[in-house]
Amino acid sequence: MTLSLRQRIELAERFAHPDQLSRLDRHKDREGFIQATNLLWYQVAELWQVKLAGINASNTRLAFPELDHGLPMHPHAWRQPFSATPPGICWTFHSLDIWRLDPAFYLEWQSESGPRLVLGYRDPRDTVVSMAAFLSREGGQRFTRQPEAAVFRPILRNLPSVSDRITYLLRDPAIPLLADFEAAISLFHHPDVCSVSFEELVGEQGGGTAARQLAAVRRVAEHVGSDIDPEVAVEKVFNRNSYSFHRGQIGAWKEVFTVEHTRLFAARFGHLLEEFHYG
User: Fold this and answer.
1) Mapping DSSP to helix (H, G, I), strand (E, B) and coil, where does residue 4 land?
2) Does residue 71 sit in helix, strand or coil?
3) What does pTM read for this prediction?
4) What confidence tens digit (pLDDT) does each residue in 141-178 have?
């Protein structure tokens, strides 16, 4: 995200330590101010990962040591509400542990001007196939949760075929597929959460339709109160340059699932198809 100068000033005033703030001179050292607020923004994002119980999603301190984390933050930074973050921010999650969120976030969410939540989800069978590819290749390694990079990636790379990797994912009880989807069920049914599926968003390039894609983009834009033109935004949705991009196709599981995969999936994850209307 590109922050404006005004957003950077507000970010520094709200989250930087007063002593640090007094040393940030945007008039004499514009480049230094931008670098400092870039770092501060990373730290604020990481702070909110913790507040939203998603600290394992990525650890920027470990993933990007070149950023030299350690900019002193305001002693009350943790108390800042979600509204203190720059406007127009969209925090993307596919599930949230509703019992571990910061209680203050719930109070803010329930207010009339509170943050807008958007839940993204996908056919769990396609998610398994995507996970098999994502965890066994180099792309996106910095952004996987730490156990995924340290434990599951070496295991999957040691298996000889895609079929073997899918079998393993369907058998290992520590794989987060079930927990992540089940954590999303409450949000999926919540009237104040905008749920949008991969199948809707992917459009014609991914095996969907242009009409569903445009409708989904428009629905999300309206939900978050964005004035973006859906006709323009829809052109950027299918992004082959995304670090997590594999094939981006609906129903990829049909090409690789064996009879045994179908049996294993039904035994452990079959109820998810009904919950998310893929049954």
Assistant:
1) coil
2) coil
3) 0.83
4) 444 556 777 888 899 999 999 999 999 999 999 988 88
Please list, residue by residue across 183-206, b when 16 or more beta carbons sit within 10 angstroms of its beta carbon and e when fewer do.
bbbebbeeeebbbbbbbbbbbeeb
- Backbone φ and ψ for 118, nearest 5 degrees, come out as -125, 125
Token pair listed for 263: 């049996």
Backbone angles phi, psi at 37, to 5 degrees: -75, -25
Tens digit of pLDDT for each residue in 54-101? 655 555 566 556 656 567 899 999 999 998 988 777 667 788 888 989
Counts for the chain of helices (H) and strands (E), in that order: 15, 2
Distance from the Cα of residue 50 to its chain's centroid: 14
The candidate with the shortest Cα–Cα distance to 124, out of 55, 187, 175, 186, is 175
* Closest CA relative to residue 250, chosen from 202, 214, 191, 184: 202
Query: What does each C-alpha distance from 93 to 52, 105, 180 come to in angstroms?
Result: 10, 15, 10
Query: To which H or E segment does residue 256 belong?
Result: helix 253-256
User: What residues have CB less than 8 Å from 132, skipping those under 6 apart?
Assistant: 156, 162, 165, 166, 169
CA-CA-CA-CA dihedral for 124, 166, 53, 14, to nearest 10: -90
pLDDT tens-digit map of 10-57: 999 999 999 988 888 899 999 999 989 988 998 898 888 888 886 555
Q: How many residues does the chain have?
A: 279
- Cβ atoms of 117 and 194 within 8 Å: the answer is yes
H, E, C per residue of 171-223? HCCCCCHHHHHHHHHHHHHCCCEEEEEHHHHCCHHHCCCHHHHHHHHHHHHHH
239 phi, psi to nearest 5 deg: -115, 105
